[in-house]
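Write out the 3D structure for:
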Amino acid sequence: MAANNNEVVLSLRLIKIYQAVDLIDKLRKSLFVRIFSWSLYDLAVKFFTLNIVSLYFVRWLTITKGAPDILYSFVFGLSILFIAVFSPLLGYFSDMTRRKHALLIQFTISGIIFTSLLAVTDNIFFAIIFFICANFSVQIAVIFYNALIVGIAPREKMGFVSGAGKMIGYIGSILALYLIRPIVDTGGYRASFLPSAGLFLLFSLPCMLFIRDKGGGGRQSLLKFISFGEIKKNLLSLKNSLQSFAASYAIANFFKASFFVLIPLNAIIVFMSVYLTKVYGLSEGRIIQFLLIGALFAIMGSLLFGFLSDKIGPKLSLYAVFGLWQAGLIMASLIPADNLVHLTAIVLGVAFGSVWTVSRAMGVKLVPEERVGEFFGVFAFIGYVSGMLGPLLWGILAFLLSGLGVIRYRIIVLLFNIFWIIGLFYLRRIPEKET
């Protein structure tokens, strides 16, 4: 009798498992579920990039542990160097094996584990190692996340999908600030690490469950791909593949335009709070207010330009985006007092939200589906190189113009418009038929 009961219980469990798997399969076929699940990953990443990279790990390291600022600069730069070196190779690998989803899961889980480990060590050396591994894992995972967009919706809807991802991502910025801040107030900076990892896992689960690669996956393992016997052959294949990108007139000009516009964009991301303090004299509370206004309008800009990209094409949409950036930088550099600073936040917020939305949509249209992972790997490489050059250039200009006092910051922002003009030059060279 007991054996029969056990068999019944086992059968019921198997039925429940089958029903759960069947439900997941049905949900995967829903366009809404795919778009929403993919977009939630953008939100999930914000719990790492905002709370760990931008806010609390650097404060724990420099304030709680008393380490010099240059140590974090070195540690962050080292992680970026690793990412820049490996991103094209791993993007190429994801295309060759069609395992973007599996790689997304592997690197996401790796990032979550190393972020969690930050919460269990008080040793600076181990914390630095864990941070480098976590940042590397998360940023590489984002490459596969971007590449998975091709399996979400038809190409004519890429602008909307990209915009939805960015919109929900900026909502994630607001959530990351509000959900973690009370924990930090009561438990200190290190108390933020484990909740950030947990929320990253929670919001990334839908993407890991409901998104799949378009087409079957290959079997070659990553370890074999980068093994001593294979690495030379694979690097040569990657070199030939990148040369074909360079030979494409449209793709080469897209990469050139991206490189030049990302230089000022990355510098502004790093030094925006410094600028608002020194030029406008804003308090920390008003800076947060500025950032929240910017985030709200970035949400609107992401969605608006996602629709616009689908309607008129990403190239024409990027013309408008570049114009917004130039207007925002001119306003920021010339407004004499802070009475119009919120207007600047609105313009730059829309510009921030739209530039990533439209760039991602244009990139997907420029390359065949089987090479989109490689494309985003190269795009990430360009972003990280400009991410190092932009803040460096800001620092050099601030030093050279130091005799001018606070006004030097206004001059720097105004000069950065030159890069948007150069980017516009290369954008105009992309053939209309390609976009």
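The chain has 16 helices and no strands.
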